[in-house]
Design a protein that fits this description.
The protein is α+β, with helices and mostly antiparallel strands. The protein contains 13 helices and 13 strands. A hairpin with a 4-residue loop joins strand 5 and strand 6.
């Protein structure tokens, strides 16, 4: 018997390895088989139904070769955020090979989105075979389809309106463009993304388009969405020009200072918006002058948060904020105003940002500003006053006037359907009084019960002592 040579022994492992590779490749499924296995399910219907401004209903029909056991709706809206936000909803359904699912995003629960907001959604589902798939991501515009919207575009602005002629829209567009140019030259605020402006035919139409907004709202700025909403009739064109610039400025400020670290004081946000409109009108200037002469100016610290709901103080808050911003820009230059906004964007407090850029804090600003306008020196409080948190979303009121000026716009992404509108809380004005009285009575009973318990314990202790002493 011939023994194998050392050379042939070296070749055997290589041949065996090659055979293994051939067998492995033979047993692998073909690309067609893999594609067939992954496409066991499909979405044959995928739509959205918008009931503006109340709700949006997402619906889908899904077919599968095996039973569908899991369906998740992933959805949201396009806006500036500090991170990716994906909301999830879990519609109810009975597992089957063919199912229909739907889920309703009820704006009466979450607070409505602004007209023009972009919604997106997709379906994630899996079948009994263990295959998970995701449908294509679709999008839709949250808008009132009852109006015959027209669009006028210029540079990064898109103006949408439905009442009034082309001249009406062009006039507003010219005002918007002039306001942007003024902001760029004087405040250092520039357009960073396309802005959509929706013009409703008056304050009442605007109110009907936004849930849970005060009746006096005449204009709204949504910097996170790059959207402005204003109610303007053709006869309110002069007011509308100023309102247009005012709200656009809020969007520019929102973009310039966007971060998850800090806030912009209201006097600065509103002051820039009013400053962008040009000089104060006669009535506001007279009120500001009277406040200077009578030493009734509001403290800058008090203007850092929400403005007063008292009409006269509200108007003065706007005028005084304008004067503060005018002083900072015209006395110290546009570059420092830009630097201040960037410091706030980076998370610095208002005090620290002012010190870094101008060399004085909030109180120092008020001292310098009062000197510049020939006002009485600031009255110094014995106790330090904290700076209130600024209002989140400023608003502008319609031509007819305002009762309250500033309000935040609450909106968030819910994760479940809601079929009933929010109930009215404390609809009866006497309800809070009864609740307070009930709380007082309960508190009194607790206090009396405490005293009685202590008296009983002391009495028992004395009885025990007496008993022990008698023994």
């Amino acid at each position: 018997m011939n023994n194998p040579s050392p050379r042939s022994l070296q070749k055997i492992p290589a041949r065996i390895q090659a055979l293994r590779i051939v067998l492995f490749l033979t047993l692998l499924p073909s690309p067609q088989q893999i594609l067939s296995a992954s496409l066991t399910s499909e979405v044959t219907y995928n739509e959205i139904s918008i009931d503006f401004p109340n709700s949006a209903t997402f619906s889908a029909e899904i077919h599968s070769e095996s039973e569908i056991v899991s369906v998740v709706l992933e959805y949201g809206n396009k806006q500036l955020t500090c991170g990716d936000v994906i909301a999830k909803a879990f519609p109810q359904f009975t597992p089957a090979n063919e199912i229909e699912v739907s889920w309703t995003w009820d704006m009466r629960q979450s607070g409505s989105l602004p007209t023009g907001a972009q919604l997106w959604w997709r379906w994630r589902f899996s079948n009994a075979g263990g295959f998970e798939q995701v449908s294509e991501t679709r999008s839709a515009t949250w808008i009132d389809s009852e109006h015959d919207w027209q669009t006028l575009a210029r540079d990064k602005l898109q103006l949408h309106w439905y009442e009034g002629g082309q001249d009406f829209a062009q006039d507003l567009m010219n005002s918007a463009k002039s306001g942007l140019d003024f902001n760029s030259q004087n405040s250092g605020l520039t357009v960073e993304a396309p802005i959509d402006i929706y013009i409703y035919s008056g304050a009442e139409e605007l109110k009907n388009a936004i849930l849970y907004e005060p009746a006096w709202t005449g204009g709204m700025a949504y910097p996170d969405f790059d959207i402005v909403l204003i109610g303007i009739t053709p006869v309110e064109l002069e007011w509308g020009r100023d309102a247009m610039v005012h709200e656009l400025t809020h969007v520019l400020v929102g973009h310039q200072t966007f971060s998850c670290l800090g806030d912009v004081p209201t006097w600065l946000n509103e002051g820039l918006a009013v400053y962008s409109e040009g000089d104060l009108d006669w009535a506001d200037q007279v009120q500001l002058t009277d406040a200077i002469e009578n030493n009734t100016l509001l403290s800058v610290r008090s203007l850092s948060g929400s403005f007063s709901e008292v009409t006269n103080k509200a108007y003065l808050s706007y005028s005084q904020s304008y004067s503060l911003v005018k002083y900072l820009i015209e006395a110290h230059g546009q570059e420092k105003m830009t630097a201040l906004l960037l410091k706030l964007r980076d998370g610095e407090t208002t005090n620290q940002a002012l010190i870094d850029v101008y060399g004085f804090d909030v109180d120092g600003l008020e001292d310098e500003w009062r000197k510049a306008i020939d006002a009485e020196p600031r009255s110094v409080s014995a106790q330090p006053t904290s700076v209130p948190a600024p209002t989140q979303v400023p608003t502008i009121v319609p031509l007819s006037g305002r009762e309250a000026i500033i309000t935040p716009t609450p909106y968030f992404v819910p994760t479940s359907s809601y079929q009933q509108p929010f109930p009215e809380v404390f609809a009866d004005p006497l309800t809070p009084i009864f609740i307070c009285l009930g709380c007082l009575i309960l508190l009194s009973m607790i206090i009396l019960g405490t005293f009685a318990a202590r008296a009983w314990i002391n009495r028992r202790k004395q009885q025990v002592k007496d008993h022990l002493s008698n023994e």
